[in-house]
């Protein structure tokens, strides 16, 4: 997906899962993200499975962006309606600003496949010079949602990091 002349952006994956963080569930969606983004030309810098705890999620997002300084953070899980689904609330504590079109595009594409897509509360936004995007927890939903946003990651990251190139040029 990324042109050889473009910068190789770094990325991190954070999986929100109580069972996964205790080693009781395999993290298939996180593994898929690591493989797919690496194959798309991104460089894996960080990976973590954390419990569905707002402060833990906030701390991990801040660590990935402020300390490790990954360009792209992709999360999986915690975007639904369950009481333990607190990823969107954690994003409120972390983001400088949102990019609503990315979340809207994912929900729109998913809605064509299932009416339950309207229940997703995933967000996308910027902290520092990093893009953070929330994907659902299931492997199927991660595949479908990533397909929608992956083509714009390179351009979004270039703009976030200060590129003055024309957005209309492809």
How many helices? 6
Overall average residue pLDDT: 93
Q: Calculate the terminal CA-CA distance, rounded to whole Å.
A: 13 Å
Helix content: 40-55%
Overall radius of gyration: 15 Å
Looking at this protein, list some descriptive labels.
single chain, 170 residues, alpha/beta, six-stranded mixed beta sheet, 42% helix, globular, disordered N terminus
Structure described in brief:
42% of the residues lie in helices and 19% in strands. It is of the alpha/beta class and 170 residues long. The chain has a six-stranded mixed β-sheet with strand order 2-1-3-6-5-4, with helices on both faces.
What does this structure look like?
The chain has 170 residues and is α/β, with parallel strands linked by helices. 42% of the residues lie in helices and 19% in strands. It is built from 6 helices and 6 strands; from the N terminus they run E-H-H-E-H-E-H-E-H-E-E-H. The chain has helices at 18-21, 28-39, 54-67, 87-94, 100-111, 139-160, and strands at residues 10-16, 43-50, 72-76, 97-98, 124-127, 130-135. It has a 6-stranded mixed beta sheet with strand order 2-1-3-6-5-4, sandwiched between helices. Helix 2 packs across helix 6 and helix 5 runs antiparallel to helix 6 (139-160). It is globular. The two termini are 13 Å apart. Mean pLDDT is 93; it is low at 1-5.
């Amino acid at each position: 997906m990324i042109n050889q002349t473009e910068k190789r952006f770094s990325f991190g994956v954070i999986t929100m899962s109580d069972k996964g963080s205790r080693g009781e569930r395999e993290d298939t969606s996180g593994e898929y993200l690591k493989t797919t983004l690496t194959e798309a030309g991104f460089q894996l810098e960080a990976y973590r499975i954390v419990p569905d705890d707002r402060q833990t999620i906030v701390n991990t997002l801040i660590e990935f962006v402020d300390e490790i300084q990954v360009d792209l953070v992709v999360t999986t899980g915690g975007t639904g309606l369950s009481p333990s689904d607190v990823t969107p609330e954690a994003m409120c504590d972390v983001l400088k600003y949102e990019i609503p079109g990315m979340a809207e595009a994912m929900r729109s594409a998913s809605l064509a496949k299932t009416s339950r897509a309207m229940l997703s509360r995933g967000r996308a936004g910027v902290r520092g010079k990093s893009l953070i995007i929330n994907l659902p927890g299931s492997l199927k939903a991660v595949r479908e949602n990533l397909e929608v946003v992956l083509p714009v990651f390179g351009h979004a990251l270039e703009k976030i990091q200060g590129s003055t190139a024309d957005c209309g040029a492809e």
